[in-house]
Specification:
Layout (H helix, E strand, L loop, with lengths): L10 E4 L2 E2 L11 E3 L6 E3 L1 H12 L7 E2 L4 E4 L11
Antiparallel strand pairs: 1-6, 2-5, 3-4
């Protein structure tokens, strides 16, 4: 019987999660309209605030889909073999 060999392949597993956060409508996410007639939301600022809220430890995340397993783009020896 031939000798059995194996090759170590580094894999990456990515799990997508989702969360809903509530961004307060404050001066931080608003700007004055060009004609000076009032204020408007700035979508990029809303998203920045949402991401900041999502990084807080109290954010409730829910798994959105099954994990995706794929070869890691950077292959290297296993740490215990280095």
């Amino acid at each position: 019987m031939p000798k059995v060999s194996a090759i170590a392949v580094r894999l990456r597993r990515t799990t997508l999660e989702e969360a809903f956060v509530h961004v307060p409508v404050t001066d931080e996410v608003m700007e004055t309209k060009p004609d000076g007639s009032g204020y408007r939301l700035v979508p990029a600022r809303v998203m920045q605030a949402a991401v900041r809220l999502g990084r807080q430890s109290g954010t409730s995340w829910r798994i959105e889909s099954e994990p995706v397993v794929e070869p890691h783009p950077i292959q290297m020896p296993e740490p215990r073999l280095q």
